[in-house]
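stage 2 :: seqdesign
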């Protein structure tokens, strides 16, 4: 039975080493870099008012809970997962928390590079 074009399964990578790279757990630096890029993208787009956008960003930032940032990621994730409608004060708080998290993530990205080795993720 043929599947519709839009429903076709993606092809597997040609080499098993490529598959290993896809399945590898991202390093702390990679997590930080992805988080910073996603935060800036959503702040630039001014789309945090949308519950679906906030939920996607929360899913993307969820691995930050494993980083040594105290309870900040948990509070941020809870705020991102708030249902609509989100009030102006909540949106302001969320925006400020995202903006203050960026320098902390950048510092975490730089720390391993300065030490010369990637640190393991905290569990």
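stage 2 :: out
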């Amino acid at each position: 039975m043929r599947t519709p074009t839009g429903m076709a399964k993606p092809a597997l990578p040609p080499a098993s080493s490529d598959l290993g790279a896809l399945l590898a757990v991202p390093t702390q630096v990679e997590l930080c870099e992805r988080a910073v890029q996603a935060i800036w993208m959503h702040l630039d787009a001014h789309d945090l008012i949308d519950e679906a956008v906030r939920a996607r960003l929360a899913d993307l930032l969820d691995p930050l809970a494993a980083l040594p940032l105290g309870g900040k990621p948990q509070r941020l994730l809870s705020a991102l997962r708030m249902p609509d409608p989100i009030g102006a004060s909540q949106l302001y708080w969320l925006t400020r928390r995202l903006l203050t998290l960026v320098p902390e993530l950048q510092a975490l990205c730089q720390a391993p590079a300065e030490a010369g080795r990637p640190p393991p993720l905290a569990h």
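stage 3 :: structure notes
- Residues 1-16 have pLDDT under 50 and may be disordered.
- The CA atoms of residues 72 and 101 lie 8 Å apart.
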